[in-house]
Each structure stands twice: as C-alpha cells, then as structure tokens.
Amino acid sequence: MENLNEDFDLNGFVAIKKFFSLNDIAEIMAIVGQLVSGKLKNMSPEHVFYENKNDPSTLKQLQHLDFYDPFFRNLFAHTKIQSLAELLLNDAVVAKNMQWFNKPPKVGRETPPHQDGYYFMLEPNEAVTMWLALEQVDEENGCVRYIPGSHKKGMRPHGKTSLLGFSQGITDYSEEDFKQEIPMIVGPGDLIVHHSMTIHRADANFSQRNRKGLGFIFYSSQAREDQEKHRQYQEKLKKEMQQSGKI
Q1: pTM higher than 0.85, yes or no?
Q2: Residue 116: CA count within 13 A, CB half-sphere
Q3: Residues 86, 134, 47, 119: what is their CA dihedral angle, to the nearest 10 degrees?
Q4: CA torsion, points 183, 11, 96, 156, in degrees to nearest 10?
Q5: Which pLDDT tens digit goes with each residue over 133-142?
Q6: Which pLDDT score is estimated for 14?
Q7: How far apart, in Å, are the Cα atoms of 93 and each of 63, 126, 218?
Q8: Do you find a cis peptide bond into 124, omega within 30 degrees of 0?
Q9: What per-residue string of b and e applies to 18-49 under the rule 16 or more CB within 10 Å gives b?
C-alpha cells in the first residue's frame, strides 16, 4: 500500500487489478440492471442522462445511485473503498457522489480532456475519483487516458464544449499532451483512481460493446466547496441538458 501512495503522488493516478471479484461485479451488474429496468422513473430527471432521450438504449449516466438504492449506499460506505480514498488523500474523506457510466456502442461520444477539479470548485482542490470497471474497457470502446504528473501543474484553462455532461474541456490541449497520454486498459473488477487535478479524457466508443463502470467521488475533509458557484453551474447544466434532450 505504501507503493500505491507513492505512485499516486507521482503520477496522479493508480490502477488496482481485481479490486472487486467477478462475483461482486456480477452482483453490481444485476442491481444496476434492476434499477434501469424498473426504477428510473423514481430518479430525479437531472440524475439520468441519455445520448438521446428518445432512445432508452443510449442511457449514458446515472448520478447519486446511493440516493436510490440501499445496495449502493452500503457499497459507497464500504470500508475497503473509503480506506483507499483516505490513504491516497492522506486525510479523512467525505463521500460526495456515486455514479454509473456507459458509452453505448457506436453512439457513446468522446469525453473531452479535463480536470475534475474544475467542476468540483474546491479549495484546496483535494479529491479523488474512482472508476470501477464492470466490463472489459480498452482503446476500442473508449478507455480513460491520463497525463501522468499533470495533477501537480495547476488548473489548465477550460472552455465550453458541445458535449453536455462534460460541458467544459481544456482549451489548449496540444499534440504534446496527446503524446503523453497513458491508456488504462482494464477488466471487470479493476479499479482506477485519479486526483481531482489529473488531466484525463476518453475516446468515443467505436465498438459493438458497451463500456460500463461505477464512479465514486470523495473530497478531502479539508476541501471547501464554493456552494453558490456550484449551484449556479448545476442549474445551467440542467437547463442545457433539458433543451438538448439529454435528460
């Protein structure tokens, strides 16, 4: 675990193989399936995102799963997960959001290069995002790509993109940035974790496969959120999502 902390500090991300067993993943997939098939109507519209709202097969994101199902509440509070967040941030943590992600086959769009901390609006900007692979994820179906060490180089300029849900992206992303990227090839049960300041992106899903995962976001207990600024951003994003038919 000491090396894990050192790698995270150096690179701004780590990958842990088989963090959860295949049996665990099968159970998670089953519960998500039940939620999608019968309970989406109980979720707030701003927590359910589609590539195209008129096509249920393009469901791309579910926010705050822990609000809607005790299974996910318990998973979010799992000691194994929270202890890892505390180790990597060297601090007590606050659980903020649990998400389900997919890039549907052929229609799952790219994720622009960004830093999560731009959206989090924290001071200090100390947080981690964990991404648990529920399926095989590779370069063909849109794996995450990191720039190592970028978490130590400050916030890059962000600007509006055409990708709602990722409405802000790095505006000066260069060929040199692309050359530095490390693709994260992961399988079911593997976990990748990155710092809120780590630059990352993902390609579109050009394959015939889904690309499903669970996300966990933890803030350092010392981080303070600009709540008014964050509220205004969320309201603006919700309006844009509604106008575009994403929610």
Answers
A1: yes
A2: 23
A3: 50
A4: -90
A5: 999 999 999 9
A6: 98
A7: 19, 10, 6
A8: yes
A9: ebbeeeebeebeebbeebeeeeeeebeebbbb
